[in-house]
Specification:
It is a single chain. This protein has 538 residues and is an alpha+beta fold. Helices cover 48% and strands 21% of the residues. The strands form five sheets. Strands 1, 2, 3, 4, 5 and 6 form a six-stranded antiparallel sheet that branches. It has a five-stranded antiparallel sheet with strand order 8-7-13-12-11. Strands 15-17-18-20-19 form a five-stranded mixed sheet. Helix 1 runs antiparallel to helix 11. It is elongated. The two termini are 25 Å apart.
């Protein structure tokens, strides 16, 4: 019989790598392409919210500027001990107020616009929260109130200022909708079917992006779902989210206005908000094409793996038994790959439907990613199995360093190493992978009470070979399971842990590549004990 040369085996391993690495890359690319759709949606939502943040800043600056203008005019025209009606009217009209009052430091009315002489001298500040605050020395903004003349919604800005005769308060009322704020609300959102509102803390509308109001109206009367969505514990607050409606999901945002008892609120149908993303549906076709390529690469891998193993089987005396094992191996690989790929293709087909809700699309996208990584993990394990089955590239390895690396990668397992040689001549990559697989198995099955499991590693050598023992205190295996556990896709019948079924097969392949073998024994006192025998080089 002709035994394959080391170069031949090396070439086969390179071919496996050439196929597997691009396949893994494409699987990852497909997953992250789908994931990018979610990131794009997040970006659109953030831009929508950013418009509200810009709006709150604009409105807050508008209020601050109004307060400054009021104070400048009041100091210039309304500081004389006796302020005449003409000076007061000129001051009011210069600021464009529809109504205004001038109070002394006791909250008594000194002047009123439009003129109403019969109430001059009355103490009106206690009736209005913003006037009371201003009399106390704090600039204040009112909630929405009806104008005295026409009953339309107005707001007032009360500004205190000091005069030689004491503190005074100048407060002017104006309609938000017919000024700069109204124009800003109408142009703040570029989305068709969107609405924006400026409301007070009681939910009354000061202005909207629609037609001006002729009377005070509550946000709850126009859009009750919106008011409920931004209300927490009985009070309006800054919030964002999605609410259901007859036209589908609606995205909403509310933000408080610094320096005023107001809130800027906006809503837009999600189908309008995310409409630009519909034009980027092509990435899903890229995902589909990538996954088809993964399937083609997987089939090519299986074909080459089968032909390679067939050449090896022909050189062994037990050719018939190994051919049956190969057939079983190939069937299991194809079966385990078919499941995730079928799930992926089904998910892609569903994603192409236009009537799916966005939350369902998110769920399907997540499932596609899970199935893609499941296929990638299986392909990665096949690569490790191929590497472990090849010719061992021995080198002197520090066992201390090697098991420290394993402990870092298997952090849920406490690895205790004792009585092992300081150095051993092995294929570092495959031996490390085998030890890591055994450690991870201990983490999965070695603890019966949920605590961190311990893996005891020891070794026994007679000079020509060394036997490593990996022992845990888990439930162990039944007698019939221990005989086949190192064969590919053979797993404990009672296990419910996820996995490809290749972890211990990699351990067995590594041991055989080093002239030895791997087997299972029950651990005295309970637990599992895995033995790995390695022939030492002369």
């Amino acid at each position: 019989m002709r035994i394959p040369s080391a170069d031949k085996v090396k070439d086969n391993r390179k071919r496996f790598a050439v196929v597997l690495v691009p396949a893994l890359f494409i699987v990852g690319l497909a997953y992250f392409t789908v994931r990018s759709q979610g990131l794009a949606r997040t970006s659109v939502k953030q831009r929508f919210e950013a418009r509200l943040e810009t709006g709150t800043s604009f409105i807050s600056e508008f209020v601050t500027d109004r307060q400054r203008q009021e104070k400048v005019v009041a100091l210039a025209r309304l500081s004389d001990p006796l302020t005449d009606k003409t000076s007061f009217d000129i001051a009011v009209e210069s600021l464009g107020f529809g109504a205004a009052v001038l109070l002394d430091d006791q909250g008594r009315l000194l002047q009123v616009y439009p003129s109403k002489p019969e109430i001059i001298g009355s103490k009106i500040a206690p009736k209005y929260k913003h006037l009371s605050a201003a009399v106390a020395g704090t600039p204040a903004v009112s909630i929405v109130v009806p104008s005295a003349a026409k009953g339309v919604p107005v707001v007032a800005i009360a500004m205190p200022y000091e005069t030689p005769t004491g503190r005074r308060v100048f407060s002017g009322a104006f309609s938000v909708e017919v000024g700069p704020l109204g124009s800003f609300l109408k142009n703040m959102l570029p989305y068709a079917g969107s609405q924006s509102f400026l409301i007070d803390a009681e939910g009354n509308i000061a202005a909207t992006s629609e037609a001006p109001r002729t009377q005070i109206e509550s946000l709850g009367k126009q859009t009750p779902n919106l008011l409920r969505s931004i209300t927490r514990s009985g009070a309006i607050t800054s919030a964002e989210g999605t609410m259901d409606s007859e036209v589908g999901p609606i995205r909403y945002v509310s933000r408080s206005i610094p320096g005023a008892p107001w809130y800027l609120v906006a809503q837009v149908p999600e189908k309008v908000l995310y409409a630009p993303l519909a034009r980027t549906i092509w990435p899903l076709w890229l995902v589909f094409a990538g996954l088809v390529l993964v399937g083609a690469f997987a089939l090519l891998l299986l074909d080459r793996l089968q032909r390679s193993r067939e050449r090896l089987v022909s050189q062994l005396a037990e050719q018939g038994r190994l051919n049956l094992a190969l057939e079983d191996f190939s069937w299991r690989v194809a079966h385990d790959l078919k499941g995730p790929l079928a799930g992926i293709l089904a998910g892609i087909e569903l994603m192409n439907r236009n009537d799916l809700p966005e939350n369902t699309r998110h769920e399907i996208s997540a499932r596609i990613g899970t199935q893609a990584w499941k296929a990638a993990d299986l392909v990665s394990d096949l690569l490790d199995l191929a590497r472990a089955s090849g010719t061992a590239k021995r080198q002197s390895v520090s066992t201390k360093d090697l098991f420290e690396e394993v402990a870092q990668d298997a952090q849920d397992v406490a690895i205790k190493v004792s009585d092992v040689p300081d150095y051993i001549s092995v294929d570092r990559v495959s031996f490390r992978q085998a030890a890591l697989n055994l450690a991870r198995n201990a983490g999965k099955y070695g603890s019966t009470d949920g605590s961190k499991t311990t893996l005891d590693v020891s070794a026994d050598s007679d000079g020509s070979e060394v036997t490593f023992t990996f022992a845990d205190r888990g439930p162990g295996l039944a007698d019939d399971q221990g005989k086949t556990i190192f064969e590919p896709f053979k797993r404990g019948v009672d296990t419910k842990e996820p996995g490809s079924g290749l972890g211990l097969a990699i351990v067995g392949a590594m041991a055989e590549a080093h002239g030895g073998r791997a087997w299972y024994e029950d651990r005295p006192g309970g637990g599992a004990s895995f033995k790995v025998l390695i022939k030492l080089q002369d």
